[in-house]
Amino acid sequence: xxxxxxxxxxxxxxxxxxxxxxxxxxxxxxxxxxxxxxxxxxxxxxxxxxxxxxxxxxxxxxxxxxxxxxxxxxxxxxxxxxxxxxxxxxxxxxxxxxxxxxxxxxxxxxxxxxxxxxxxxxxxxxxxxxxxxxxxxxxxxxxxxxxxxxxxxxxxxxxxxxxxxxxxxxxxxxxxxxxxxxxxxxxxxxxxxxxxxxxxxxxxxxxxxxxxxxxxxxxxxxxxxxxxxxxxxxxxxxxxxxxxxxxxxxxxxxxxxxxxxxxxxxxxxxxxxxxxxxxxxxxxxxxxxxxxxxxxxxxxxxxxxxxxxxxxxxxxxxxxxxxxxxxxxxxxxxxxxxxxxxxxxxxxxxxxxxxxxxxxxxxxxx
Length: 366
Hints:
It is found in: Membrane. This protein folds into two domains: 2-311, no CATH class; 319-365. 29% of the residues lie in helices and 23% in strands.
């Protein structure tokens, strides 16, 4: 492992692709090279991603060409603030809620894989969920799937957060979020809190170590950290994670944002009579030995439970007048209109008295 890291170069993506084992067998349409899934490098190594934005839609021109592995033939017409620009040929793909609209995949794992040099003590597969404009990080929610011959069903709850544009007049420190285009990132075209944090970590690592980890966005002049730099990189990462709640680099969430929350997980045995080959449109399930290593995952959203939260100004002028008048009416038996009438009558009486005095003075002169 050390020799491998020590000799990483600009063609390291090709090297990893050559030595990495393929764990993906089939998706819901039965193809081995599924057009919906793309291979990308993350902090855990090679991963398969669904609905990820294309390199040109995701990154700015400053990002190193290594990240072109985020290549996607589909052009995005979506962002978290406005949703889809058009309603036809949408990408990222829209997934309806409910069982019939789940994302299903058949995976193959090595049951004898107990490599002590792996980055994690866990076995099996780590399933992450994130926005299409984000790179998978440790800050994203995850679920580990490791049991063989199981049908694993993961249900997610979708949360939508929106903020009224009228709140943009308030300082960022008070509202604790950014509106679209309020904070520009060097490497990402679309702002998100996790993208900001990843960019902040990259800048800190470059400043302290003169390099950055292979999965972290960098510009075209910054090298990848090798074995001699790893201790420095780990120290920077550890310190950053310990202080992430202090909002380094002023990384706050987006005012208009979408989040995925784990709702439920269920696990069932794969029936011997379950015709996985037919379901995944495969002629057979490989050898009998491989059939003992299959795992099926099914990911869906909660039916009819998209949680929406919209933030408005706490008090607008009209609402303040209305609430103040209602409070007076409740506590004093009067209203704003009553106060206006009292003030009007007071000035009117004063004016009448002054007018009468002027008449009396005029009569005395004659």
